[in-house]
TrEMBL record:
Pfam families: RimK, Rimk_N, Zn_protease. Residues 456-475 are annotated as: Disordered. The lineage of its organism: Bacteria, Pseudomonadati, Pseudomonadota, Alphaproteobacteria, Hyphomonadales. One of its GO terms (biological process) is SOS response. The keyword Manganese applies. Residues 266-449 form the ATP-grasp domain. Its cofactor is Mn(2+); Mg(2+). Keywords: ATP-binding, Ligase, Magnesium, Manganese, Metal-binding, Nucleotide-binding, Protein biosynthesis. This is Probable alpha-L-glutamate ligase. GO terms for molecular function: ATP binding; metal ion binding; ribosomal S6-glutamic acid ligase activity. GO terms for cellular component: cytoplasm.
Amino acid sequence: MTHAEPFELGWEEWLSLPDLGLPAIKAKVDTGARTSALHASVIETFGPPDAPQVRFLIQPDPSDPGLEITCSAPVVDRREVTSSNGDTELRYVIQTDVQMGERRWPIQLTLTNRETMSYRMLFGRGAIQPDMIVDANASFRQPELGFGAYAGLPKKKPVKRPLRIALLTREPNNYSSRRLIEAAEARGHVIEAIDTARCYMQIGTLDPEVHYDGKALPRYDAVIPRIGAGITDYGLAVLRQFSNTGAFCLNGAGSIGRSRDKLLAHQMLARAKIGMPITAFAHSPKDTKGLISLAGGAPVVVKLLSSTQGKGVVLAETRKAAESLVDAFRGLEANFLVQEFVEEAAGADVRAFVVGNKIVGSMKRQAQKGEFRSNLHRGGTASSVKLTKAERDTAREAARVLGLRVAGVDLLQTKDGPKVLEVNSSPGLEGIETATGKDIAGLIISHLESQVRPLSRVREPAAKTRRRARQLSAN
């Protein structure tokens, strides 16, 4: 009695996805990953809600970004996938045939951006059939292909196209909103200011939508969130829904939530060994004296966790004053922190403006006489300042730890090096642009352009897409 030869795979293999028009992809075979994943950018859905399809762009050769293929496939699911670094992402799932050698079988693939990965595809254990054996010490046990398979296909230079951008804000006429709108329109983009509070959503469909004033909003390429502190929870829910539609969010809901939760933000920064003033958190402590001692003793700064623009921030110069403040906050049953007062800062701090992990501007804010809060809303003044290497590194690392692409990082300059006071996920533009003379709004839009990949062909108008969907369903 003879047994069939096992179908052997190495830890990396060439394969093709014929139904997607991809004759050659180099994949990493990973039995530790349950789900297979395919690189995709500019993901957009089309078709009827009960039978949605997805269109996306792929550069199959990591060393040749000029080789771009537009693919489309039916959506079979949307699934939360946790990557190896612990990030969870809601991804579209498609089903398509894979071919290795003479063998062809259907697999499911999640779509995600793998631009920074060496392999455009991850071949998970869910795609491995029962008679297959993976040799983790071998490569290419199946016939090798090559990117020469694309030689007959015409290369298309990526075309810069206008982006459709949503600016989530309840204050479309303030300085920051106006500057972002001006900068986007100056670069040929379409940008719409949307009042976060007037958005509503339908949850639970494969084709998620955001509704606004009685009708569904169109698909956006990107969203710039400027969510006020008073509407954080609902604003983040709206932002997550925009993300679910496939829009690129300049700052994600998770990163904004981390920065707004002062306790979580301080814990994450501390874990990353980023310098901060000594801080104690409390809700309703009975040991008032012990709490103040944890922060190093008077003088201390007492802050409500919901404080913004310097409101709810009080300096207690003596222990008795500090105890009275803590007792007052405790009576309100408010969450608050008690923080070391860094006297050597002399009422000044430095704001480093981070865009895409780069410091694009910095200013020194000085409190007015008799005031310790340097916020410009409290009468402080601002001037351009050159940061030290330690300050630049600290600001970039603080934004990175919280996952923010755009952030205002407030630093204290001390003899022990820079200390992070706060990381703001919706930093104002007026102070930094006035102090530095730089077009910060333009730099934000430029970074947005670099993150939202252009299609290699013009999108079909939405009406044409709907007509085609109706024709297909009729047939």
